[in-house]
Structure formats: structure tokens, C-alpha cells
Amino acid sequence: MSNRYYGEFGGQYVAETLMNTLAELEKAFEEAVADPHFWEQYNYYLKEYVGRETPLYYAERLSEKYGTKIYLKREDLNHTGAHKINNVIGQILLAKRMGKTKVIAETGAGQHGVATATGAALFNMKCKVYMGSEDIERQHLNVMRMEMLGAEVVSVESGSNTLKDATNEAIRTWAKEAEDTFYVIGSAVGPHPYPRMVKEFQKCISVEAKKQFLEKEGRLPDVVMACVGGGSNSIGMFADFIDDKDVELIGVEAAGMGIETGKHASAMALGRPGTLHGMRSYLLQDEDGNIQLAHSISAGLDYPGVGPEHAYLRDSGRAKYVSITDDEAMEALAELCKLEGIIPAIESAHALAYAFKRAKTMTKDQAIVLCLSGRGDKDVHTIESYFSGKGYLN
Amino acid sequence: MNRIEERLQQVQKKGEKAFIVYTTAGLPDMAGCARLVQTLDSSGIDVVELGIPFSDPVADGPVIQAASYKSIQQGTNLRKVFDMVADIRRDGCQVPIVFMMYFNTITYYGMERFVDKCIETGVDGLIVPDLPYEEQKQFQDVLDAKENAPILIQLVTPVSGDRIPMLLEHARGFVYCVSSMGVTGQAADFHRNVLSYLEQVKKVSKIPVMMGFGIRTAKDVAPMKHTIDGCIVGSHFINLMEENGYSTDTAREYVETFKKEMNG
């Protein structure tokens, strides 16, 4: 197996049309990674534009209530409100280096779309964002933001009209226009080298967190956790801890209305290995091998697959994956608002909910580091309708 | 000998060009689809490409996407398509049949079991657009281990460039030459260097070179007629069928006219 794989997962399951494009991308990526000047640029924009490093905040009241130390890696404080921008800066700098003039992206909730539109404006690139028509309706504010930033939002009406279909359409467009177009993938998914690239550009989360935790506690944390949709913030949060075998890594998937209802987004809990979007990984599939719709109150976790390295980390036993329901996540969200004055994204609230459960088995000297991947501003409508008992927009 | 290889040799011997039509399995319904395949056969088609509908057809344009979606909604699945192929073989239809499908459908069914079922029912070839050369080994090993296994058809594209010799080295059946970038069904908008590209493929290829993507009538391929060994029509045929209620008369007329014009 070459480095295109993580165990049996990963690979390049794309049309022949894209194979030379991927080879070109891989070469450019390897060269960039080996070039100190590239990292200088990347770090410059992360500091001056994104606002890194982000704090590792000791959540005092939460820690007190749950009886163990809870630290929050504040990715919600990044420009554009989530970790997505880290990766976008990296990929767009790479696109520039390769001489591309246009970028395309897929988006579900709109966070990666907004981040890409932001990066495109910053680096003067033309930007098209593919978004399912369902999502366009339920994430209208993000559509507006992308348009204000100069991006064209393309409504995708095929299949289920959601993220997976938007991704299909972005792949189709890419196959047609790869000559001058760079496809910015937002999650740790897709054909090689994308999962590797996304990890490289999200790794800053764990590199900072590790250093910060060492400064505060003089040791490594006991547990590191993050939510998992496709798995970008979690792979970034895990990256620098993977070799520290004593640190327990936990990925939290969305259990939606409950795994047993079938309405969930837990590819690891009930998925089977399969191929989608250029990769082999765990996928939700029906009895005919078609891809099933995922369900989660959080649009960012609403994806039927998971990044191939997570599939590998799970099978090799290095990381553990659990699921949290819509209700549990919303309860944790409310708690963080009240106890710490932080409104988290619903995605990140899934990790929080599990942290509260896990904390019960820990002592007051132990510590959890949790990736608070995004802020909840984008979710206020969903939160409002959930708590006012009208059901929610999903 | 494999039906595809046999048929294309016969066509070549006659000094003619081969014609392949794609239709989505399960449309208009299972029985109608079987009738359509039999009609295509008796109209002189050389190979029938049956699309196995998949929820996420990334290599397909809007026409085939819509057809796949409709077929899935009607309950089409791989098992039913195998049954249909078995039925038409039982009725004596010997037309070469190629499945156009996505890799997930194969792995979900199980590679071994899938290949066995292809052999048992009489599927002669496979086109798997999301299984590029580099990812084929495991599946190719399963195919190679069995007698009369279907041929895994190789696709080449206008940007394959220096990959072409590698792609064609062990290719069998025919080479599927994608004539434009992107997905199926973008009206005769071939890649700007299509002719020199086809010539390049033809020079390397030991097997028939079939051109596909965006072809509607024999006129579309007239300029490259002397380079290619035949062509494949997909989206346009689906459009034609959708507009004419999957009329077998329309299908027959289309195939006969196309073949006559292409070989005229």
C-alpha cells in the first residue's frame, strides 16, 4: 500500500479525467510542505488575518460542576467563526502557487463556503460554492455572507439536494474545469491527497493546544476530544497527539434522533466500508449499496461518511468514536451558554455533551482538552426553534 | 471467447464501425428495459451498455443522473438487473452486455459474488468510472482468477496524456475514449484537441477504440470516423427514450439510422 491509504481506507476513487490533476496537486502539495517560505506565508496569515493562536481556555465553572478539568480550544474565536478558515488559507495559498485563478468548494451548513469565499476575496480568486437547494433554504444567512464576499453560490438540485449532492456537483465541475480551477475541500475527506492536506492545514489546532496545555499543566492531557462529521476539526485536534499513546482520543459523531431510529449521521457506529467522493471509508448505506441520507440537527455533521484516517484510527484502536443525540447536544449547548458565557456551534456541542458524560468517570486532577470548533451565531435560528418547541429546521 | 471481443472482431472484419448504446437499467420498468435491450439487439446494436443506477453518480451529467434517480425510486437494484439479464439470455438474446456502474455497488454486493453472478447471468464487460487504473488491482485479481469473467473496460480521456500506454497495456474488449472533459451528456462539445488525442490513442491501442460522451448523431463523429472504430451514445439516447415513452420503434429507428449513416 502506498501513502494514498490509511490501512484499507483512503485511495483515489475518481474518474480517469482527474488522475493527472490529482498527481499535479500531490506534487505541488509535497513541494509546498517542504518549502519554508510557504509555511512563512501560511503562518503569517493565520496570525495576522485569522487571529491565531486561539486560546486554550480553562472552563472553570464547567470543571467544577463535572469534577474534572475541562479545557476548551477556542477555534470559535477564529475569523469567520470556526476552524474551517485554517484549511482554506492553506489550500488557497497552494492554489495560487499552482497558478490557478478560480476556486470551487462544496458546503453544507455554509461554514466552509463562507471560509472559502473569504479566502478567495483575500487572495483575489474567483469563487463558486456548490450548495444543495435544501441547505440554501435553511442556511440563508450564510448564503448572503458568501455573496457579500463576492462568491457565486450555485444551487444544486440533484439527489437529496444536500451536502453530499453539492460535493458530487463540485467534483463534476472540477473534472470539467481542473485546468484553471482548484477544488478546496473543507473536510478531511475526498481522494488522496485531500485528507492529508486538510490534516496538515488543521494540525495547528493540536500543535498549539499541546504547547498551551504543557505550559499550564506541565504534562499532557488525559483525554482529547472533538466532534466528527467528515472529520476536519477532529483530525486537526488529534494530529499532534496521535503519537502520544497515553492520551485518549475521542471522536464524537452525531446520533441525530438516536442511532436506533435510523435518523443519524454516525458513519462509524453503523456504517460499512464503501466508496464515495473519491475515498474508501465508512459510509451509511442502504440494503442496495446506495448512500443513505444522514440526519443531524447540526448541518455540519450531516454527512453520510467520514474521513479515511478516522476510519483507520478507529479500526486500529488508536481513537474511539462515540455518538451524541440532537437532544444531548442541545442540552450541552445551553449549559455552556449559561455556565461559561460561550454560545458554541451545535457541531461543537456534540463534543461537549460527551465530555460531560466522560468527566463523570474522571478525577479532579485529570483533564480533558476539547475542540470548540465553532461559534453558534450561525445556529441561533435552529436553537430558537428547537427550544421554543417548534421542532427544528432539519 | 468473450462476446464483446467476438462481436467487435466481426464488425472490424466487415470493415464497419461499431455502435454502442447506453440505457439506464430498470427504465421504463424492468420488463420494458428487457424489451428495449432485445430491440436494440435485433436493430443491429453491437454492445448494450446497461447503467446500474447509483445514488451518487459523480461521472454523470444531469440526464443520466435524473434517469438513475428515477430508476432507484422505482426500486431498481443490482439483483433485479441480474435477473433481467438472466431472463433475456434465457430467451436467446446474445448481444454483448456491459454494466456501467459505480464501484460502491460492486463492493457492497461483494466482489467475488458479483463476478460469479456476472459469469452466471452473462454480463460481458464492466465500465466503472470511479475505479481508475491505480485502484483496479484488487478487483482485477478477482476477475483474473475466474474463467469467463467480464472484461474491465479501460477509459482514457483527453488529459490522460502520458498515462495512455499504461492504461492500454493490458486493456481488453475496447478502449472507451472519453471525448470531452467532465461528465456524460454535454452536447457534442468535444475537447479542442479531440482529433489528435484520438489518433494518439489509436496508435497505441491494440483493441478497438470507441469514442463516447456528448454524441447524438452519426454526423457528430463524421470528422473522426477514420480514426475511431465506433462510438457510444448515452445521454442523447436516454433523452430520446424519455421523450418517446421508451418506444421500441423509436429505438430501432435510431440505431438503424445511426449505423447506416456511420457506415455509409
* Proportion of residues in extended strands of chain A: 15-25%
How many H/I helical runs of chain A? 16
Count of helix runs of chain B = 12
Q: Work out the helicity level of chain A.
A: 40-55%
Task: Please give the largest β-sheet of chain B.
Answer: 9 strands, parallel
Count of individual beta strands of chain A: 14
Radius of gyration of chain B: 17 Å
pLDDT < 50 runs, ≥5 residues of chain B: none
Oligomer: heterodimer
Roughly how many Å is the radius of gyration of chain A?
A: 19 Å
- Structural class by helix and strand composition of chain B: alpha/beta
What is the molecular shape of chain B?
globular
Cross-sheet strand order for the largest sheet of chain B: 5-4-3-2-1-9-8-7-6
Any idea what the shape of chain A is? globular
Mean pLDDT of chain A: 95
Strand segment tally of chain B: 9
The overall average pLDDT of chain B, rounded, is 95
User: Strand order across the biggest sheet of chain A?
Assistant: 3-4-14-9-10-13
Task: List low-confidence stretches of chain A.
Answer: none
Distance between the termini of chain A: 40 Å
